[in-house]
Every structure is written in structure tokens, then in C-alpha cells.
# Entry
Amino acid sequence: EVQLVESGGGLVKPGGSLRLSCAASGFTFSSYSMNWVRQAPGKGLEWVSSISSSSSYIYYADSVKGRFTISRDNAKNSLYLQMNSLRAEDTAVYYCARDSLRPGGAYYYYYMDVWGKGTTVTVSS
Amino acid sequence: DIQMTQSPSSLSASVGDRVTITCRASQSISSYLNWYQQKPGKAPKLLIYAASSLQSGVPSRFSGSGSGTDFTLTISSLQPEDFATYYCQQSYSTLSYTFGQGTKLEIK
# Structure
């Protein structure tokens, strides 16, 4: 069964750090780009960061650039998000999601077809 | 960044109704548009990718259309399990994906 399982969430004080993990199983993890997407309480989805299959390409939302670091270990089938200098507005459920693709047009069509159940991060004093 | 705007933000409908949700991009994104469904307390689920391609396992009452800046998600005959929040997402700019703000579909 294709599965993503997040862990590492919790309560942290403003300015603190937290490292999220996402364990992948049931597919060839090293062949896929991966994403972190978050959802603040009662709010919509916000893309946070992406990393290509070999870690060659890494992108961040402006809201987390310079504070969060995405990484992966293909040998361990794991995705990570190191979160530093946390703020109250980082409080959210954090999902990891697989990026699949299909050739089309001038580029590839990318879509997030597998999602974990999420891990909750609360930033509060 | 490409902005995605959905309308309406919320919608009341009855079982059996035909429902359409609209998503507009701030610039042309060709057909690089995906739709997701999210139920309370659950992870999002992919419904439609590349604007009109139905994800495997998704009922055929769901369909997507559009290209350029204007897109629609249509549910041909609402079922009780379809009451949820729906999000569009552009994948034209892989440097920065963006989601619409969501459309909450409620029971009338």
C-alpha cells in the first residue's frame, strides 16, 4: 500500500525549532519529488516547500524562506522539514505529499496524488 | 506568484444537484490545474489533474474543464459523500505552487 506517515509535530515556543519527518512506503520514493503543505486552523491549504527526487531542486514559499529547510534521505525513504525561528502563524497541520507527473504540453503536469494524514505543529508560549 | 481565486467561497446544494465551482488564475497557466477534495479532519484527496483528467478511482460524476485562466469543477449529481471543501491548485509554476482559498460545499 502506498503510504506517507508524518511525525515530529508538537507544541513549541515562539522562536523555537522543530523537525518534521515523513516516512514513505509502497512506492519507489527516490523517483518522486515531494512536498510539504500546511493548513492553519480553519484556513485553506498553503504549499510550504518542494524537493526534487535527487534533492537537486528545492523551493520554498516566501513565508518560510530562510527559516525552514526541506531535505530527504532516499536510502531511508524519508522526507524532512527542519523548522527554525517558529512563529505563531506557523501553527498548522503539516502534510507531506507526493508529486506525480505526466508529460503534457511544453512541460510536465505535476499533481499531488498521495498525502499523509498530517502532523500538528502548535507555536505558542 | 500566481494567485488562484475560487468562487463561490461557500455553496449550499441538495443531493442530486449539479454543482459548478470556478477557479481563476492571475495569469495564464495553460492546463496546469488540479482539483482536490478535503473532508473535515482528513487529508486532501486528488480529484482532477491537468484541468480535466480524472484521477484513478474518482467517480465519473466529477469533471474538470478550462484552460488559460478560467477553470471549472463540476459534480453532475451530488451525493451525500461529496459535501466537503474543494481546492484548486496551479502547477504551472513549480517554483511556487499555489492553492485557491477553497469552496465549502454544504448541504441545503
The CA atoms of residues 85 and 104 of chain B lie 4 Å apart. The radius of gyration of chain B is 13 Å. Chain B touches chain A at residues 1, 30-32, 34, 36, 38, 42-46, 49-50, 53, 55, 87, 89, 91-92, 94-102 (CB under 8 Å).
